[in-house]
Amino acid sequence: MTEAKDISSYVNQWFDQHRAEVIGWRRHIHQHPETANREFATTSFIADTLTKAGLEPQLLADTGLFVDIGPDTELGRIAFRADIDALPLTEVTGLEFSSVNRGVTHACGHDVHTTIALGLACALADYARAHSLEIGVRVIFQPAEEVWVGGATDVIEQGVLDGVHSIFAVHAEPKLRVGRIGVRAGAITSATDVVEINVKGPGGHTSRPHLSADVIYALGKLITDLPGLLSRRVDPRTGTVLVFGTVNSGYAPNAIPQSGSVTGTVRTADITIWRDMQTLFSQLVEGVLEPIGVEHELTYHRGVPPVLNDDVATALLASAAQAIDPQAVVQAPQSSGGEDFSWYLEHVPGAMARLGCWSGDGEMHDLHQGDLVVDERALGVGIKLFGSLVEQFRSEVAAAAGLTR
């Protein structure tokens, strides 16, 4: 078998030739966003585009799909994941291709992620026809990243990781200049859990608090004491933080109510702490409320674990980025946000990178805001990064089996 042409160079050339088409894909996806588990038109558009490229996409249950390019090998496939759902927000960008679906917009960059993955798949399809693609690649278009606890668990149960050696993804980063790629070994996002504490008492008059169990006082103690107690029970270097978002109780200034509740989130970058957090949190709540005499019910909703980038996969990611631009790589900060890409990394090694999408001029926007605008040059950066990763996988990982399963 003759040696195939460099995959990275081929993908770069493919994007340069198809730039306008790729931008058109992104604008179509952006203009027709769909929320979690309702991405029917998005799934159809992706499937049609892949089929026209000569590929055979495999639909997942309800929405989402994946596609394989290249052969099955003993080593396994390198996989790439893109999330395809949008957010229930109103777009206020004023772009000519703004969302036509009222109250729904791609405000987290999933239109960018999807387009990058679609571009990679189509470029590799062309490559496989022109040359011998010696390794297997899988591109996953996952639904429902934005909902609890993420669509990743469902698609994993449907077998998208069967035969996968390692997996990679990018996430749009509007605080990073386009062309820059943020990498970080270890935790790059945090585990995110939701807590709800309901308290109950007999109620009473505020002139006689000693004859009642004061629900309002109990809620106040939870809000003020729990964050501090938690910070004294876990290593502060783990980025563990409790923040309450709602508190509800009462109806009159002179009445002690019979019930009330608080809800909030617990976040940590340490997976060991995350796994033990529910037990610890329950103990702390019990300790705060026991002296007050109120009854309570704790509902602890476990969310996603932190995205823990594998050391070797992160090094491969950095090497792939440097191959397309020696100045591209920057150190990504550890985020307190959650990302369900973490579920894939519970099964196979891999890494997620931050993809710069700020133009470098004007205001920096933020994710999950209706005014998010991304620099479309990021599409080419992402596609070329993924192409470089495929080449790195072929020339380095496939030869040395450097990523341990």
TrEMBL record:
InterPro entries: Amidohydrolase, Bact_exopeptidase_dim_dom, Peptidase_M20, Peptidase_M20_dimer. Transmembrane segments: none annotated. It is an enzyme of class 3 (hydrolase). SUPFAM superfamilies: Bacterial exopeptidase dimerisation domain (SSF55031), Zn-dependent exopeptidases (SSF53187). Its EC number is 3.-.-.-. One of its GO terms (molecular function) is hydrolase activity. It comes from the Bacteria. Residues 195-285 form the Peptidase M20 dimerisation domain. NCBIfam families: amidohydrolases. This is Hydrolase YxeP. The gene is yxeP1.
